[in-house]
Amino acid sequence: MKCRNCRHLYKDWCAHKLDSPDPDLDRECKDYMQATHADRIRSMSNEELSKFLCEFRSCDSDGYPCSGCKAESYCRPGHTGMEDWLQQLAEEDT
Fold it and tell me: Which of 38, 66, 69, 92 is the most exposed place for a label (fewest CB within 10 A)?
């Protein structure tokens, strides 16, 4: 379905149509814009984002990140450190 890959779809709701599209129907929409990778990342939950970040930075078969990764101490199999880090207040860059 077209809506599944639209940048206006957020958590199964369409921001332009103010409805939840039926996944079994293919509808034509003048507001359709194909989602980018950044759009998908922005719409992730903290749990999805933490899993994505840990897997994205993984460099070895054990799931541990590359050396020099700022998240190294948070990405361990079965560990929720990255999720915990995402919940922390952000520090301002000075």
Answer: 92
**What residue spans define the domains of the chain?**
1-43, 45-87
d(CA 23, CA 29): 14
Cα separation of the two ends of the chain: 45
Q: What is the pTM of this model?
A: 0.59
CB 39 within 8 A of CB 62: no
- Is 59 or 13 the better-scoring residue by pLDDT? 13
Residue 89 has phi, psi (to 5 degrees) of: -65, 140
CA 73, CA 13: separation in Å to the nearest integer? 35
Q: Are 65 and 57 in contact (CB under 8 A)?
A: yes
Residues 25, 8: Cα–Cα separation, whole Å: 17
Q: What is the pLDDT of residue 78?
A: 62
